[in-house]
Amino acid sequence: MTSKFVADVGGTNIRICQVDGHKLLNIKKYLCVDFPTIEDAIKHYFNEFPDIEFSYGCIAIACPVIGDWVKMTNHTWEFSIEQLTKGLSLTWLGVINDFTSVAHSLPVLKDEQKVQIGAGAPKLNANIAVFGPGTGLGVEHLTFTDKGWKALDGEGGHVDFAANDENEFAIWHYLKKKLGHVSAEEVLSGRGIVHIYEGLAEKNQQAAIYADPAQITEKALSEECELCVETLQQFCKIMGSFAGNLALNLATHGGVYIGGGIASRFVEFIKSSKFRARFEDKGRFRHYVSNIPTYIIIEPDHGLLGAAAYLQQNYKG
User: Fold this and answer.
1) Cα–Cα dist 155/71, whole Å
2) 94 vs 258: CA distance, rounded Å
3) How many helices (H) and strands (E) does the chain have?
4) For residue 217, what are the CA distances in angstroms to 10, 132, 210, 295?
5) Going by C-beta distance under 8 Å and a sequence separation of 6 or more, which residues neighbour residue 226?
6) How would residue 22 be classed by pLDDT, with cut points 50, 70 and 90?
7) Would the CA dihedral through 89, 90, 94, 98 be positive or negative?
8) pTM of the full predicted structure?
9) Which of 300, 261, 310 has the alpha carbon at shortest distance from 6?
10) Coil, strand, or helix at residue 53?
């Protein structure tokens, strides 16, 4: 019996599964540090299913993928795509950036795998954007071509942070003094939550007690700390403005999606925040973005889903 596989590789874990159409089967998660090489990790998965002959697959990995040699940013693994293909005895192997995989998951997400925030309806095969506040800030656009969906790579997380209210001007000034350059990633990420909290503390002449984004978020959601609540509200506003900018950049009438490891943890808070109001607050172009839908991805395996979608579209064997 032959089969195909996909893998989602981060700095800590590698997740591997078999694929049947868009169905993910036999998902396994391993610690990367338990294996000297990525080939060892994937062969370990193959060995768990001795009756299956894996013939082709796709790997989504958290690092740039330019040419044949792939070197992970936050782990020791590095490899040649050509040599890995031979080592695994595969007919074909695709290797893509992990956020490219996230982008490819968007057209195949079902309603129960995402939550819509606010109004709007997607247009068929229209451009889509996704951004993901997490350790950093990933950004990707997706456009439909005569060969299927094409991800447009970039480093949109490192564009300048644009302040839109008095709190944000104070945060910008605080970070300008601290960092020199203030990118969007410095406010829309785990450390970004801390930066917002510290900037607001300075503005309000309060002590910054917390230094952990999870703790700030927890205190905000439990309403134990007024400054933490204000921080999370400001984070949602900044997300809304940033999402609206992405919508304008490439006419994303297919929607703007939020992935990453942060936003899905407080969906209800975002729903009741000013995220959507700030998304639509584009002056004369309010009408342009008002019908563009915004979503939070709540499917934990969307990286694997995207790798499977990429595999299905690009493997022609």
Assistant:
1) 18
2) 25
3) 11, 13
4) 24, 17, 10, 20
5) none
6) confident
7) negative
8) 0.89
9) 310
10) strand
